[in-house]
Amino acid sequence: MRLSRKFTLAVAIAVSAVLAVYAWVSVRRETDLFESDMRRDQHVLGRALAAAVTAAWEAGGAARADALIADANVAEGTLAIRWVWLGGPPGDPAGPRVDRSKLGGLDRGAEVVVLEHDGAGGGALYTYMPARVPGPRHGALEVAESLADESRYVHSTQLRAAVTTVVMAGLCGLVTIVLGLYFVGQPMRRLTEKARRVGLGDLSGPLHLRQRDEIAELAGEMNAMCERLDEAKAHLASETSARIAALEQLRHAERLTTVGKLASGIAHELGTPLNIAAGRARMVESGEVRGDEARDNARMVVEQIDRMTKIIRQLLDFARRRGPQKASTDLRQLLQQTVGMTQALAAKKKVRLTLAVGEEPAGAAVDPAQLQQVLTNLIMNGIQAMPGGGVLTVGLVRTRAHPPADQEGAEASWYRVWVADEGVGIAPENVAHVFEPFFTTKGVGEGTGLGLSVAYGIVQEHGGWMDVESEPGRGSCFSVYLRDDAA
Question: Model-level pTM greater than 0.70?
């Protein structure tokens, strides 16, 4: 509708301008014709009457000439004719009504025509026709005609032009509005509705317009765009599914790699309960213990078997492939489980694990298995960074932080999980690349360079981010930021 109003306004202005120019030209032309007729009539009458007055003056004197002029005034009702003397003093009643400075040609015997306006739409056209009469004085015949008729004619012409302009502009505006609504307004409204549906993801329902113009071409291109977008959407969905599947396989492969590293430590941890269970079973079998003592030994065997079963189940749960399943999880308990699972491997590498999680609840919507994979990877990297042993700290704290520049968001409450080691650290030039795929500072065969990249991807899918602080020779601290459910 706004476009139709613009077209209507433009057409109305253009029509009004054309008609106004035409009216001005017409008024000027008619005015010139009107004045030209007046000049011609006064010229003809003035010449004829000047000759008659001269003849009458010569035959009968001034009285006869005055009588002739009086008769002419009666016959020509719209003209005022009188005899004027030239060369008289200013203010002479018998002198011309026009300023003497405009009548210089009369002295040389030439006809003089003077048009004077009074500024109020009136005035008169004066024609001075020289006439030679007996005597020393020079006179002329003055023929005057009022411009009132011309003023009324111009006024009526202007009024007709204004009415015509208004009527034509109105008719053109009405026609433009009707045609604009039919050919522009309705098609553009349908195009707008189609664009809104496309913006909301609805690519169905092609748009068909009956007209054959640029708007119809635009509708056709929009239909073609929707078809291409639909194809691209299906292709993108297929590629996304394949990418998710490949990413999950990569994460599972990384998880199995970590399981392999944990296996040696867990195998060592299984040795103690196996020895205890085997020894107690032999005592019962050999008959060394009987009665209540035998039942106590049997109970101890069961406890050690349960302990080994729990260790093996925990390892299998960690290695099992599964899809992402986010749920409200206590991060403190998850950290405790992860530290417990890696405790044996850390002890084997002469690394002491410490946990600093506080006493307050720490609930976050995460996938426990995926987050455990992230934490296990960070702990394993920390253990490997301390070949001579040391202390590795795993902590949890609630803090306020701004997301990094590549993630939108204002300052908010986050859970920060950190893993700090006392290892060799990371060179400054490598810190910015530690989360890139296949980047590793380990020797050949010691790592794929995918662990931290996979971990970073998991944390990003949880709406968080990771960062690292490191100083060569003094260790590294990796931080994981996760959304606070209570915020």
Answer: no
